[in-house]
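Hello forum,

I keep getting stuck at the same step: I have a sequence, I want structure tokens, and every attempt I make locally crashes halfway through. Rather than fight my setup again tonight, could one of you with a working pipeline run this one for me? It's a single chain of 94 residues.
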Amino acid sequence: MVTVYFTSAIRQRTGDYETTIDYAGDVQGLLRLLANRYGPQLAEALTSPQSGGGGLPGYVNIYVDGTDIRHLQALATPVGADATVDLVPAVSGG
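Reply #2:
Ran it on my machine without issues. Output:
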């Protein structure tokens, strides 16, 4: 089972701190499953309008087994059946 952890603003859209899902594939497919489970509010938070709704916005970081997917294969990053995935809004400050 893939364990997905939601933090702060994303948790507000899911109502859950974490969830498990029976899945093996890539990040994009996992995001589709999560959007189906949690509805359009989550889908909107996880897609970028600049990419036509198909890309990851710059203000959301996704980690698969502790590594930022931007350093891997982005949305094509493989997600193993026992992976841990963290959805984390980017934090900025001054």
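Strands lie at 2-6, 18-21, 25-26, 60-64, 67-68, 78-79, 84-89. If your local run keeps crashing, start a new thread with the error log.
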